[in-house]
From TrEMBL:
Domain Phosphatidic acid phosphatase type 2/haloperoxidase: 152-253
Keywords: Signal
Cited CDD domains: PAP2_like_5 (cd03394)
Protein name: PAP2 superfamily protein
Keyword Protein transport among UniProt keywords: no
Signal peptide location: 1-20
Coiled coil: none
Gene3D superfamilies (alphabetical): Phosphatidic acid phosphatase type 2/haloperoxidase
Length: 496
C-alpha cells in the first residue's frame, strides 16, 4: 500500500512536470525540437531521436493550429481603460470651466470692449452642420463606421444623454445669462449640441479622413465662440458644454456598441496607423497669465495689475515628422487691483469714493514654426516660436461716488478720470509644452509661454474745473508700456 502511494505520488509529480513542459513548448519553434527531445526523450522520442521522428511534423502542425493562449494578457494602463477613453477629455473641459468661473466677467468685458454691438445668429444653425454632414455622406454612399440605421440609434442615444444632462443642470444651477435675459445660462445647450454633433462626425468618419474631424470640431468651436460673441453665455458655460457634448457621444456609442456586441458594422481602421507620423494638431489652451511688470504703472494713481487668464486656440500643420507651421489665436485679461487706494473721508460726510477700472486686455494673432520631439510612445516635447500682432483693448479709469441724500436714497455717480487706447503692436511668443498621449489621437499638455510686446498707449487724462464739473478738459499723451507676460496652463490637443 505504501509503495502504491509512493508510485501514485511520483506519477502525479511526473505528469504535472510533463504537462508543464508541454505547455511551455507551445511557444517553441521548429529549431527548438532538439532541446525538447533532449528534455523528454522517453515520452516523445524513439531511438532515432525526436528531431528525426516521423511525428515531428505532425507535432509542429498541431502546435501551429492550437488556439489556446496560456500567456497572461497585458494589463491596460489607466488611459487605455474604457472610463479614461470616455471621460478624460470631457473632464479636462469641466476643469477648464471651473478654472475660468472666477474670471468669466472679465472675459465678457473684453467682448464688450472689442465688439459690444455684435449680433449674428449663425450659431443657431452651424451647430447642426456636423450631423447633417454625416447623413449627407451616408446617403451619398460613403461607407462609415455604421450603417444608417445603427448610426441613427447611436445618435439618438447620444442626444438623449445630452438633453438630460444639459437641462437638469440648467434648471438646478440657475445661472443668469450675461445679457440678463434668463437664469439658465450654465451650461451652453448650443455648444453641447454642437460638440455632440462634432464627436458624432468624428466617430463615423474621422477614421476615413482627418478633414472630417477637423471640420466637425471647427463648427463646434465657432458655435461656442458665437454664444460668447452674442453675449448669450459666459466662457465657463461653453467650456462645460464642450465637455458635455463629447461625453454624450462617447456614452451613446459605448451603450449601443455593448448592445450590438461589436465596435461597428464596418471595419474602421484609421486612415493611417500612426497619427503622429506627421503630428498636425488642433488644441485648446487655458492658463494663468502673469505680467512681467505692473501693466498700469503709467496710470500714476497707485493701482496694480494682477494675475489674469489666458485662453486660446492653436493649430499646426506638420510637413515632416518633427517640423511644422503653426498659428495661434488667444486672448488674455489682467484685472486691476484698486484695494490700496479705496478712499473714505469723514470730512465728506455722506460721500464714499473709490477708483473703478476695467481689466487690461489683449487679443493675439500669431504664426510661426513648431517642433515636436518624441520622448517615448506616450510622451512628446513640443516647442514653438510665433510672431504676429497684439490688439489691445481700450479702457478707462473712473472715480465712483456714492452719496446718501436727505431722503436716505443711495445716489451713485461716476466721473471718468483717464482713458487709454493701446495701439496694435508686434508680438512674439516662445513656448514649450510636455504632452502625454491619452489615446492615439488625443493628448493632454502642460505648457509654459513667454510673450513679449511693447505697444504705445494713448492716454487721455480728464481734468475737471471746480467751477464747472460738467465741462471736463481732456489732455492726451502717448507712452510706451511693457505688455510682456508669461503664462502657464494646460491644453487639450487632438492630432490628425
Amino acid at each position: 500500500m505504501f509503495i502504491k502511494r509512493i508510485l501514485l505520488l511520483t506519477a502525479l509529480i511526473i505528469g504535472n512536470s510533463v504537462f508543464g513542459q508541454f505547455e511551455n513548448s507551445l511557444a517553441f519553434e521548429k529549431s527548438d525540437t532538439v532541446l525538447f527531445n533532449f528534455q523528454r526523450p522517453s515520452l516523445l522520442a524513439n531511438k532515432n531521436g525526436f528531431a528525426t521522428n516521423e511525428y515531428t511534423e505532425q507535432f509542429i502542425s498541431l502546435k501551429q493550429k492550437d488556439t489556446t493562449d496560456f500567456t497572461t494578457p497585458d494589463k491596460k494602463s489607466f488611459f487605455e481603460t474604457d472610463a479614461a477613453q470616455i471621460g478624460f477629455v470631457p473632464l479636462v473641459f469641466f476643469g477648464a470651466s471651473a478654472a475660468t468661473w472666477g474670471s468669466r466677467k472679465e472675459i465678457r468685458e473684453l467682448r464688450n470692449r472689442y465688439i459690444p454691438t455684435f449680433e449674428n445668429k449663425y450659431d443657431d444653425y452651424i451647430q447642426y452642420a456636423p450631423a447633417a454632414a454625416v447623413y449627407t455622406l451616408k446617403l451619398a454612399g460613403v461607407k462609415g463606421r455604421n450603417n444608417i440605421g445603427r448610426t441613427t440609434i447611436s445618435y439618438a442615444t447620444s442626444a438623449a444623454i445630452m438633453a438630460i444632462l444639459v437641462n437638469s443642470i440648467k434648471h438646478t444651477a440657475k445661472v443668469e445669462r450675461p445679457d440678463n435675459s434668463t437664469n439658465n445660462s450654465f451650461p451652453s445647450g448650443h455648444t453641447s449640441n454642437a460638440f455632440m454633433n462634432a464627436a458624432f462626425l468624428d466617430k463615423e468618419y474621422g477614421f476615413v479622413n482627418p478633414a472630417y474631424s477637423i471640420a466637425g470640431y471647427s463648427a463646434g468651436t465657432f458655435t461656442a465662440l458665437g454664444r460668447n460673441l452674442n453675449n448669450r453665455h459666459w466662457i465657463s458655460d461653453v467650456l462645460a458644454g464642450m465637455g458635455i457634448g463629447i461625453l454624450s457621444t462617447e456614452l451613446g456609442y459605448f451603450i449601443v456598441d455593448r448592445f450590438y456586441k461589436n465596435d461597428g458594422d464596418h471595419e474602421h481602421v484609421p486612415y493611417k496607423k500612426d497619427p503622429l507620423s506627421k503630428p498636425s494638431f488642433l488644441s485648446l489652451k487655458v492658463g494663468s497669465a502673469n505680467s512681467i511688470s505692473n501693466l498700469v504703472d503709467n496710470f500714476g494713481i497707485g493701482v496694480k495689475s494682477k494675475a489674469g487668464l489666458e485662453i486660446g486656440l492653436e493649430g499646426a500643420y506638420y510637413f515632416s515628422h518633427n517640423w511644422g507651421i503653426g498659428a495661434e489665436f488667444s486672448v488674455a485679461s489682467f484685472p486691476i487691483s484698486t484695494e490700496d487706494i479705496f478712499q473714505y473721508d469723514d470730512d465728506l460726510g455722506s460721500f464714499n469714493a473709490s477708483i473703478v477700472t476695467q481689466s487690461m486686455g489683449v487679443m493675439n494673432v500669431m504664426l510661426g514654426p513648431n517642433y515636436t520631439a518624441f520622448l517615448s510612445d506616450h510622451w512628446l516635447l513640443q516647442a514653438k516660436l510665433n510672431a504676429g500682432v497684439a490688439i489691445g483693448a481700450s479702457g478707462k479709469v473712473s472715480l465712483a461716488l456714492t452719496e446718501v441724500d436727505e431722503d436716505d436714497n443711495v445716489v451713485e455717480n461716476e466721473l471718468e478720470l483717464l482713458s487709454y487706447k493701446p495701439k496694435n503692436a508686434f508680438k512674439t511668443t516662445a513656448g514649450i509644452a510636455i504632452t502625454r498621449m491619452v489615446t492615439k489621437r488625443i493628448g493632454l499638455s502642460g505648457y509654459f509661454d513667454y510673450t513679449y510686446s511693447k505697444p504705445d498707449f494713448i492716454y487721455t487724462e480728464i481734468m475737471y474745473d471746480d467751477s464747472d464739473p460738467d465741462d471736463p478738459n481732456p489732455s492726451s499723451s502717448i507712452e510706451t508700456n511693457d505688455f510682456s507676460y508669461w503664462a502657464i496652463g494646460a491644453k487639450v490637443i487632438a492630432f490628425f
